[in-house]
Amino acid sequence: MASMGMIFQPSFAPERLIETVRLAEAEGVEELWVFEDCFKESGIAALTAALASTERIRIGVGILPMPLRNVAITAMELATIDRLFPGRARFGVGHGVLDWMGQVGRRVASPLTLMREYVPALRALLAGEEVTTDGRYVHLDRVRLDWPPLAGLPVLAAGEGPRTIALTGEVADGTVLTTGTTPAMTRSAVDRITAARREASRTGSHEVVVFVNAEFGPGASERLEAELDRWGLQGERRFGATGDDGSVAATVRDLLDAGATTVLLQSASAEPDLDGYVRSVARVQALLR
Predict the structure, then answer these.
(1) 49-85 per-position pLDDT tens digit
(2) Residue 222 CB: number of other CB atoms within 10 A?
(3) Is the domain covering 3-288 a CATH 3.60.20.10 domain?
């Protein structure tokens, strides 16, 4: 079932998260995701705090950089969170920004190899399996979680380039597509994912989560352009949703029709009225029901 929600960016002070996520839940927003950007806010800490402060809303983190996190630690953290808050946590893993990974001495020579080793190991650990593997980057010797999730916990992986997008289809349970992804790019990504899953004999559903910059009301187009400049998006990737609630809802619908299963609206990095933005997201969501 398709869903939508919003993103709490790490450009907002951490202490704003609790009031924002409580308002989002009160307004009926289905999902709120946080980022783990270096060197701003912890995705796991923010995820847990948001879940502990609410009762129903789903909370996601996109993405957890694989080079920074031993896969066993990631599995332990996510399994514990899922048992504390069953069915409400969502997450994706990814390469991380390569320059940031280099700053902390964790840049890998082959991000694709890391994903190919890391995601299957993480899926197996979260499924309660004992895992032994000796890859280029992932090394586990008879590791099994004592407290795995009670139900399935999908592992999503972030992709941007065609090879990475195909690999997410091969090894993950879902794909996270970042801001600047148009409906045409979403459709192309879904085609690559479907082909990769077929070749790998993968069955079952595959989630596709798309982030989209969205600005509401008068001056929305100008504010969007400024935000796209801030993110350094060029060409086809200078894409977002603008205008009144109906116009933004139409863009979200286009992304869903292109194959997205979840669309998350992303405000300006310096959004002056975050509460108002939450209410705008809730109104758009209501139009799509």
Answers:
(1) 999 999 999 999 999 999 999 999 999 999 999 999 9
(2) 11
(3) no
